[in-house]
Design a protein that fits this description.
heterodimer, A: 120 residues, mainly alpha, 57% helix, B: 410 residues
């Protein structure tokens, strides 16, 4: 039994020591500018002139948040990249959760993407 | 009349040599053990196909079990492999053995576990672990199940049960089941306790397949609703350079600290480096797909083939299976309890459920953390946070195996 206790104590100390040392090295790596990170810039706002111009032209304008404008632009660009000129985007709206599933579709897609190599 | 007699004698001769005759003719003499193992193989096949419990592992093992327990088929000859791998007569294996005997050489020589680790490394994204290095500690904590089982196996000796005692090396070989890592369990046992390789391998892979059943009750028992509902902060992005440096650094540090773990950790990290560097995509894809699939087929079939009834059904096997369950449970418990400690230390920022993913059943244990977390909070997305301890557990179990190998003098 002394052997078992010795193995337990020794084993846990060595496993923790090895991994703590790796954690320390990872911590140092995290502080290094390995990805050329810069300070995040302040988010740019939609210039008010574009909204004013649209109102002057009599067009219906809903004052979207800057993030929604950018998100819509990204989604339209992605659809164009996949579907080409034959696809016309008529609207962008948030997706509802899958029927009978409380999981958000993006969350489900993330789960699938990250576990795909382990399943066939 | 003579023709009829010859015909009848031929039929009787064929039937007397059939598997049915050997199975039921020797029923009380060991035939019932083959029958029992056939039944177990049918159950495992059902679990793999019908219930989807890790079919990639369970189906080859179950079918190997089926093949080896068909009397008279002689698909596998365990007598060719008794004892130390250095004493195997390879010419006898090649001349007298069959397909499964030749394929089993990969297990006996420790080749398959390292090849599978190549594939696992190529499949694994260490990003969540690099982004949150604290996950390493959860991966380390979950390895307590290994060592607690060594204590349990040695404690059985004090019960003085006839025919049931474990030497130190055998106890360590059983304890590694708690690492929830099939290749590591096989690799360690063939070095320190080859006589129990089949039993440990079947126990290890079977429990890996049963993680979704074993872990959730323990996780719910040890955590409160408030703890299970904790939403963790989004992980920071990890640069490509960091992902490339990580396998090189881990291999160097771990191999220098514990050279006995270099085989497994080195293969794991080489596979990962091939994946992350982006310069050898063909190699990484091969490791991730063809290589690991081929080796999984060979390993599963041959490990299953070691489970013939007379060799498998005995008190030691039952003890190994019970201890294996204890190892898994202890590992899960230790991981969750350490997760609770980190929850307290960080002021509620870490969800204790991710601690259970420290057992290295990748990615099933992480999926279980995700599932249990979502039961409390449907919007909680714990998978990527749980992948950190999950892959840390692979490294931790390889380090633990290296420690046991050194201690047992392998």
């Amino acid at each position: 039994m002394e052997f078992a206790l010795m193995v337990t104590v020794t084993g846990m100390v060595i496993v923790f020591s090895a991994l703590v040392f790796v954690v320390f090295v990872m911590f140092i790596m995290g502080k290094l500018p390995l990805d050329g990170r810069k300070k995040p810039e302040a988010p740019s706002k939609v210039p008010e002139k574009s909204i004013e111009s649209a109102k002057f032209a009599g067009l219906p304008v809903k004052e979207y948040d800057a993030d929604e404008n950018e998100l819509a632009a990204v989604i339209v660009a992605a659809v164009y990249a996949c579907g080409g000129e034959n696809v016309k985007v008529t609207g962008v709206k948030p997706a509802s959760p899958l029927p009978r599933s409380p999981v958000n579709v993006w969350a489900a897609a993330g789960i699938f993407e990250n576990t795909r190599p382990f399943s066939i | 009349m003579g023709l009829f007699r010859d015909f009848w004698d031929t039929i009787v001769g064929v039937l007397s040599q059939s598997g049915f005759s050997q199975l039921f003719g020797n029923f009380s003499d060991g035939g019932w053990k083959n029958l029992l193992m056939l039944g177990i193989s049918f159950v495992l096949i059902y679990l793999a196909i019908g219930k989807g419990f890790e079919p990639l592992l369970l189906l080859p093992i179950a079918f190997g079990m089926l093949l080896t327990n068909l009397p008279g088929a002689n698909m596998f000859h365990p007598d060719l492999f008794t004892g130390d791998p250095k004493e195997i007569s390879y010419s006898a294996v090649l001349h007298e053995g069959g397909l499964l005997d030749v394929l089993y050489l990969g297990v006996k020589l420790g080749i398959y576990p390292c090849l599978i680790f190549l594939g696992i490394g190529a499949m694994t994204d260490f990003g969540p672990l690099i982004a949150n290095p604290k996950s390493f500690l959860l991966g380390a904590a979950a390895q307590f199940g290994i060592f607690a089982t060594v204590i349990g196996a040695m404690a059985i000796n004090y019960l003085h049960i006839p025919g049931l005692s474990f030497m130190a090396a055998q106890a360590c070989g059983i304890g590694i089941i708690g690492g929830a890592d099939g290749p590591t369990a096989i690799w360690l046992n063939l070095k320190i306790a080859p006589e129990q390789l089949g039993q440990v391998a079947v126990a290890a892979y079977s429990y890996m397949a049963l993680v979704p059943i074993i872990q959730p009750p323990i996780m719910r028992l040890l955590t409160t609703k408030k703890e299970r509902a904790v939403v963790m902060e989004q992980l920071r992005p990890v640069s490509k350079k960091a992902k490339i440096l990580f396998p090189i650094i881990v291999t160097t540090i771990v191999a220098l600290l514990l050279p006995s773990a270099a085989q497994l950790v080195g293969c794991l990290m080489f596979g990962n480096l091939c994946r992350e560097c982006g310069m050898v995509d063909r190699l990484a894809k091969t490791m991730e797909n063809e290589l690991v699939n081929i080796v999984t087929i060979f390993l599963g079939l041959t490990v299953g083939a070691t489970t013939s009834g007379p060799a498998f059904i005995n008190l030691r096997t039952i003890a190994i299976i019970v201890l294996g369950l204890a190892a898994f449970s202890c590992g899960t418990t230790a991981g969750v309890l350490f997760g609770k400690l980190m929850y307290l230390i960080t002021g509620g920022k870490i969800n204790p459920l991710i601690g259970s993913a420290g057992v290295s059943a990748v990615p099933m244990a992480a999926r279980v953390s995700q599932k249990v977390g979502q039961e409390e909070n449907p919007g909680n997305f714990l998978l990527m946070h749980a992948m950190g301890p999950n892959v840390a557990g692979v490294i931790g179990s390889a380090v633990a195996a290296g420690v046991l190998l050194v201690v047992c003098g392998g």
